[in-house]
Specification:
single chain
Length: 438
């Protein structure tokens, strides 16, 4: 019955792809996601300037089999952490992104209902919070041991033949499969040189997330057939069991399945068996049945704050706060799922101290800081004891006198930033949303 449902309207898939209506929807998705130009240098704005003509031409090329995806522009993004290497991203041309987005609109309604309930990444109405909360529920049933499997360079090692063969089980229109195959084999451009691609999917293309779920759904089905409880978000998969012995057995067997059946590589150095409190999942961890920000994520946030508040910079204090505000609004919104609010307060307190240290450092002479503290309401003796000593700027920034002079209300009232989005709509990010009392 399931197979019959999949083949409904199967003959119209290719016709839908080259319809200008669907290509227009694909463009809207591309525009919403923004992004840089590909190797042809054409921006989204430039493509949109002659949108109707560009979409008609694209439709005719697809229909007449004259369409050929261009090589993607290879970009290397440093991974967080010291000596963590780089993440290889690919930026397709805007016209190719439009085709991929249209393919996604066609394929997602067919494929997504087939995916596991334990899969949360890159799926409609599913997110990281749901994945972490699902992991929390499993741990609270007593399955505290985690098999944390790390796939080495997953997006770069997807086997094209296996992927297309898997798709063919659900998509009968071979013309669609051919377009996908062309997209997979379009190659990359790096430093002006063409590099063919005989494996992998473009990490950065609109279609890649859906294709990655097609590949890893086979892993999901294997785990389900073994009766294992797990949570997967993209290539981040945690399997939960009741004992260390069982976890080690699962690690061995599933690693064999991944390498032999899926033709993927398990990173043995990063994969591990441990209690949930020692395992990071989507930047968080489950400690005693509660959700907390992982130690690694906290350390990265502290480093980010330091990077945003460098010493000896020409950037004004106001501009510095604006940049912190933009970063912290996103960071805190994601990590607000922690059940330990003190973790957020720790980051916020560190932000304030870094900014107070900046204020101290901006005073060329101690008497200048002394005068500022007097103006901020401190007594002369209190200000003098704070300033006239052998302490450095960091030590002074941590003193209660600085916290009193440059208090939370001061940051809120004096340093609020008005930020306008690219669309020109005003967005008020008040600092009282991120500067809290400690």
């Amino acid at each position: 019955m399931e197979q019959l449902e999949l083949f409904v309207d199967k003959r119209s898939l290719f016709e839908k792809l080259y319809s200008t209506e669907l290509l227009y929807k694909g463009f809207r998705a591309v525009k919403k996601n923004k992004g840089a130009p590909g190797n042809d240098g054409i921006t989204i704005k430039e493509f949109e300037a002659d949108l109707d003509s560009n979409l008609r031409r694209l439709s005719e090329e697809i229909k007449g089999w004259e369409y050929k995806p261009s090589p993607v522009l290879r970009v290397e993004i440093p991974k967080p952490g010291k000596n963590a290497g780089v993440r290889l991203l690919g930026i397709p041309c805007v016209r190719d992104r439009v085709v991929q987005a249209a393919l996604k609109l066609i394929l997602e309604p067919i494929l997504d209902p087939l995916f596991s309930e334990n899969s949360y990444g890159f799926r409609p109405n599913r997110n990281q919070r749901q994945a972490v909360e699902a992991a929390q529920k499993i741990v609270n049933t007593g399955k505290e041991y985690v098999v944390d499997i790390d796939l080495s360079k997953f997006f770069d090692r997807v086997n094209h033949d296996r992927l297309v063969s898997r798709l063919a089980q659900y998509i009968s229109d071979k013309r669609i499969l051919r377009i996908i195959g062309m997209t997979l084999r379009s190659g990359v451009m790096k430093d002006g040189l063409y590099i063919p691609t005989d494996e992998g999917t473009v990490q950065g293309g609109p279609l890649s997330p859906l294709l990655s779920n097609v590949v890893l759904d086979e892993l999901d089905k294997e785990l389900e057939s073994r009766g294992l409880e797990f949570c997967r978000f993209a290539d981040d998969c945690n399997i939960f069991v009741s004992s260390q012995k069982a976890a080690q057995r699962v690690m061995l067997n599933i690693s064999k399945f991944i390498s032999s059946k899926l033709k993927l590589v398990v990173n043995q150095e990063k994969s591990k068996v441990a209690l949930s409190k020692y395992v990071k999942f989507l930047g968080l961890t489950i400690i005693a049945g509660t959700i907390a920000i992982s130690v690694v994520s906290m350390n990265r946030a502290m480093t980010k704050v330091k990077d945003l508040t460098p010493r000896g910079t020409h950037i004004t204090l106001e501009e510095t706060i604006k940049r912190i505000n933009i970063w912290y609004m996103g960071w805190s919104q994601y990590y607000s799922m922690t059940q330990y609010p003190g973790q957020l307060k720790k980051i916020e307190a560190h932000v304030r101290r870094r900014l107070r240290s900046r204020i101290v450092g901006q005073q060329k002479k101690r008497r200048h800081l002394f005068n500022k503290l007097i103006k901020r309401g401190l007594s002369r003796s209190y200000a003098a004891n704070t300033v006239y000593n052998n302490d450095g700027r960091w030590a002074i920034s941590g003193k209660f006198a600085m916290a009193k002079a440059y208090s939370v209300p001061w940051f809120i009232n004096q340093m609020g930033q008005k930020i306008r989005s690219e669309e020109g709509q005003p967005q008020w990010f008040s600092l009282d949303q991120w500067i809290r009392m400690t």
